[in-house]
Design brief:
Oligomer: single chain
Radius of gyration: 21 Å
Shape: elongated
Structural class: alpha+beta
Strand order of the largest sheet: 1-4-2-3
Length: about 180
């Protein structure tokens, strides 16, 4: 009698993969633990959002902490302004387009925010579990590190990105206000 096996269960391999997942990406594992407790409607909505933003290929994962080291422009911005998930995940060349990235989980202290909406406010210290296409994750890093890029995606204002252009723009503004 032939046995048609679809998969093989190797307990030691499964335990090793789970342990590695908990060590390498503890926030990814937290997302999995929360996701399995959700209903089918949530699962389908999350799947559809990922497919819409990232396509049908398995998205890449990344974890970013909104800190001076990993997101200096965001930390400076949050000192004086509000920033939402939707504003941060905008294309740096055309902010009318969302990045092919989705935040799966925000870890804020002891609070977990599962698949946050676009209007969810971000805070310094938030850990973001991201899923997306590689180019979207690269584009996001521009907003994390460059204040001019972050201001554009957050407000649609184009501001000078170099010191020389900032000085010239400020002088031009000062001259037009006095004249």
């Amino acid at each position: 009698m032939a046995l048609d096996v679809d998969s093989v269960f190797v307990p030691t391999d499964l335990v090793a993969r789970e342990a590695l997942a908990r060590i390498v990406h503890p926030n990814f594992w937290r997302f999995i633990e929360e996701a399995v407790q959700q209903d089918d409607e949530w699962a389908m909505r999350t799947r559809d959002q990922l497919v819409e933003r990232c396509g049908r290929r398995v998205p890449k994962r990344d974890v970013i902490t909104l800190s001076d080291a990993e997101a200096p422009a965001v930390v400076r911005w949050l000192a004086d302004h509000e920033l939402t998930v939707g504003a941060l995940l905008r294309d740096s060349d055309d902010r009318s387009r969302p990045l092919p990235v989705r935040i799966l989980l925000i870890v804020r202290g002891t609070e977990l925010i599962l698949t946050p909406d676009d209007d969810t406010s971000l805070c310094v210290g938030d850990q973001l579990l991201l899923a997306g296409k590689g180019d979207g994750l690269i584009d996001l890093s521009e907003a994390l590190f460059y204040p001019a890029t972050l201001e554009y995606v957050a407000t649609a204002r184009v501001v000078p990105s170099t010191w020389v252009w900032r000085v010239l723009t400020e002088r031009r503004r000062a001259g037009s206000q006095t004249g």
